[in-house]
Write a structure and sequence with these properties.
Cofactor: pyridoxal 5'-phosphate
Number of domains: 3
Bound molecules: pyridoxal-5'-phosphate
CATH architecture of the largest domain: 3-Layer(aba) Sandwich
CATH superfamily of the largest domain: Type I PLP-dependent aspartate aminotransferase-like (Major domain)
Function: Converts seryl-tRNA(Sec) to selenocysteinyl-tRNA(Sec) required for selenoprotein biosynthesis.
Distance between the termini: 40 Å
Organism: Catenuloplanes indicus
Subcellular location: Cytoplasm
CATH class of the largest domain: Alpha Beta
CATH topology of the largest domain: Aspartate Aminotransferase, domain 2
Family: Belongs to the SelA family.
Structural class: alpha/beta
Oligomer: single chain
Strand content: 15-25%
Length: 425
């Protein structure tokens, strides 16, 4: 054997390299082993140096798996970053539920039981005003189920000011019409009155829909009709509150919540699980017991059924609502300022052009449009944006006026050292 061949690392040695062990966890050992064998071949053919076999194997691995990201954008509910990060309890619950679990079985008598009954009990306990609760895949699915079960072949009465596009080109009116329901639009973009609704209601009405405009605000000469003024019209009222606040949040006075909507007379409330509730992607349905039961027993409900992992994460989120989203929302500006000053100071001492700056963070597409939260960031040269984005973990900030801002509002304090390391590498 020629000398350079002897210097080619053995497969076992290569597979023990930390970079390849980490890749194996993501991609599977088989894929990593193939990459190593291919790199050894290239070394044997003299195309690469024996010392470069591991680097070549790492470089040849396909991109796979979602990459973890530190959210330094200052946008708390960031749809492109997977909306709400789960709490530590929710993460443990997901891991626990990953194997066989009693999701649909009563261990006491060995018989089939209501799927996810402990999660449903936690949701019912969180909103005592709801006679019934059900969970589907996301907020859009909750609306589709309500429209199909209550208004297919009939009319949904909705204000022209609430015909919302939720993002990525998906529009609620199109979604509702896709169920076979007809939309009966009332009012105008800026003004809709109780009389507009009353005039549209008839024998064909399935329900009145009230949609919270969760990603825009209409200002000026406007009027909208609150749920309490719609609940006396003699037809069901479905309130799509969007954000998933179950009870009022003192810092977000304009954000609707499920308990208040039900108390105001809504028949059914629909909401997302992964916005301000801070849980997994899910669609919550809460309200009149008979209506919820009708939805739950509808054939379509089976197609919108949630996974055991979702149920586990949702239950943990409901049992301990101190979730990362609310921590980010409630973070004190003074604490953020101290962190920004400390991090910027440390970076400057290491020769990085970093300065603390006051910023404005937002809740994001998940709720409270127009509402800003005073925050603090570390401002860096714009060239850092790409480097940090491609790092491990990836760090995503936002570029403003030629500077990269790392807004600390959504960064848990214990991760500040990782930001420092990322800027230094
Ligand atoms: C976010 C939102 C939806 C869609 O919910 P998903 O969970 O994204 O499917 C529907 N309506 C409103 C008002 C929303 O804010």
């Amino acid at each position: 054997m020629t000398d350079f061949r002897r210097r080619i690392p053995r497969t076992d040695t290569a597979l023990a390299d930390p970079r390849l062990v980490a890749a194996g966890a993501r991609l599977g050992r088989g894929a990593v082993k193939s990459a190593v064998v291919a790199a050894q071949e290239r070394a044997r053919r003299g195309e690469i140096a024996p010392e470069d076999v591991i680097a070549a194997a790492v470089g040849a691995l396909p991109a796979a798996g979602m990459r973890p990201v530190i959210n330094a954008t200052g946008v708390i509910v960031h749809t492109n970053l997977g909306r709400a990060p789960l709490s530590a309890d929710a993460v443990s619950a997901v891991v626990e539920a990953a194997g066989y679990t009693d999701v649909e079985l009563d261990l006491a008598d060995g018989r089939r039981a209501r799927r996810g009954r402990t999660a449903m009990a936690a949701l019912a306990a969180a909103v005592p005003g709801a006679g019934g609760v059900h969970v589907v895949n996301n907020g859009a699915a909750a609306l589709v189920l309500a429209a199909t079960a209550l208004a297919a072949g009939r009319e949904i009465v909705v204000s022209r000011g609430e015909m919302v596009e939720i993002g990525d080109g998906f529009r609620l009116p199109d979604l509702l019409v896709s169920t076979g329901a007809r939309l009966r639009e009332v009012g105008t973009t800026n003004r809709t009155t109780a009389a507009d609704y009353a005039g549209a209601i008839g024998p064909d009405t399935g329900f009145v829909l009230k949609v919270h405009p969760s990603n825009f605000v209409v200002q000026g000469f406007t009027s909208a009709v609150p749920v309490e003024d719609l609940s006396g019209l003699g037809v069901p009222v479905v309130a799509d509150i969007g954000s998933g606040l179950l009870t009022p949040h003192p810092g977000l006075p304009d954000e609707p919540d499920a308990a208040t909507a039900l108390a105001a007379g809504a028949t059914l409330v629909t909401a997302s699980g992964d916005k301000l509730l801070g849980g997994p992607q899910a669609g919550l349905l809460l309200g009149d017991a008979a209506t919820v039961e009708r939805l739950r027993r509808h054939p379509l409900a089976r197609a919108l059924r949630v996974d055991k992992l979702t149920l586990a994460a949702l239950e943990a989120t409901l049992r301990d609502p101190a979730v990362p989203v609310l921590a980010a929302l409630d973070e004190e500006p003074a604490a953020l300022r101290a962190r920004a000053e400390a991090l910027a100071g440390k970076l400057r001492a290491d020769g990085v052009d970093a300065v603390p700056v006051a910023t404005e963070a937002v809740v994001g597409g998940g709720g409270a449009p127009g509402h800003t939260l005073p925050s603090w960031a570390v401002a860096l040269p714009e060239t850092y944006a790409r480097r940090l984005r491609l790092g491990d973990p990836a760090v995503l900030g936002r570029v403003e006026r030629g500077r990269l801002l790392l807004d600390l509002r959504c960064v848990p304090v214990e991760r500040d050292p990782e930001l420092h390391t990322a800027c230094m590498s």
